[in-house]
Amino acid sequence: MIVIKPILIEYKSIDTLGEAQHYVLKAVVNNGKEILLSHPNLFLYHETNGSINTSKRYANIISQFYSYLSTEEKFSNIDISKYHVLIDNRDIRKWQIDRQIKRVEKQSVKPTSKTIFEEARILLKFFKWLNSAGYVTNVSVQYKDWRANFKNKRMLNYIQQKAKKVVDAKNIKSLDKERRQSSSKSLITNKEIKALIDAYSDPVYSALFKLSLGTGMRPMELVQFPFIGNGDNKHIMPYSEMDKDKATVEFKVIGKGKKLRAVRINIKDLKELDDTYIKPFYNERKKLYRKKQDVECPPSILFLNKSGNPITPVMISRRSNDAKLKAMQSYPDFREKITFYEARHWWPTMFAIEFFKEKLLNESSEVLYAAFGEALRNQMGHEDLETTYKYYIDMARLVYSAQQGAVHELLVSPQKSVQELLDEMEPKNTQKGV
């Protein structure tokens, strides 16, 4: 096996004339000769310069993959600097399988199937960059045949046999389950929600966080919500001008994987958005946009910051991290792990509690219920319905069990906005609220 070392370097970039800092890969071949891997290093420079943690992670993944390839017969007589030309989708899939075999051999909970998949997807980003940069590769980023399907029974049996373990050894499924169980499931509490909302220095982020709580939308989806919609969303406009006969409003949004789906939004949450952001702030920020851009702010853009700049997912992440640090000071029990994304888990958990109620404590609730499952998939935009279903059933069961005495305060009613629900969730006795 060829040893490949990730090395952190710092220098002045001739492209930006600023300081560059990222990892590079150096291979030590059999004769002791050291070789810099040009193509991976170009990728690391262009795609990870500016984020040391990302650069380190990507460098480690590519180094592990290249080290694995060096043990394969296909690459035995190939110069490591030429690997990228011969690698194909099958090699990426075989690497995933090899990692699972070694994991089962060691009976280790790490790396999980999810981690193995995610790291293989990062490899695909590397080859996509090579393709777009004009370098020759044999990897197709258009097809999903690079994925190793670890839910396939034949695949599981093959891995179990290759691992040469006794019959009662833990398989992939049990190891993944053990890993999930070792990571405690917990929902953001109402006190943490209020602390984070209050900690944002710009109310636009509080409005976005509340909208995420009420819909389960991702940051990239939230910023698409318009002031006035068109096409499939032509019915969307400020609350005062909307049809209020229905309890929810449908919003067509392009989500992860560029897939279009319909999200249901509580009409009361739109009123909250109108009262706390649109009426007091939007018009003034629209004027700032006009002044800076020298064009009118298009009706497709609703969320603008104090300077009149359209909000992006990156801005949400950065401002939420700042708010979290502030919230941790004002509320000492605020957990460091809490992020903006926790809002996305809040809605489906509340939905499960509303839907199943006391049945959550019955094992039969784990059986796929078509109506609930389809509504959950449509709202969340997940392909893997079974995994999504079980995750939120488990989460809801934990919350329900902890709050049996006050569970009625958790239920998401079409007549209540997120803010009204949070106000009602204030503990009325000594029992700790959710």
From TrEMBL:
GO terms for biological process: DNA integration; DNA recombination. Residues 183-409 form the Tyr recombinase domain. Keywords: DNA integration, DNA recombination, DNA-binding. CDD domains: DNA_BRE_C. One of its GO terms (molecular function) is DNA binding. The keyword Aminoacyl-tRNA synthetase does not apply. InterPro entries: DNA_brk_join_enz, Integrase-like_cat_sf, Integrase_catalytic, Integrase_recombinase_N, Tyrosine_recombinase_XerCD. Belongs to the 'phage' integrase family. This is Site-specific integrase. It comes from Acinetobacter terrae.
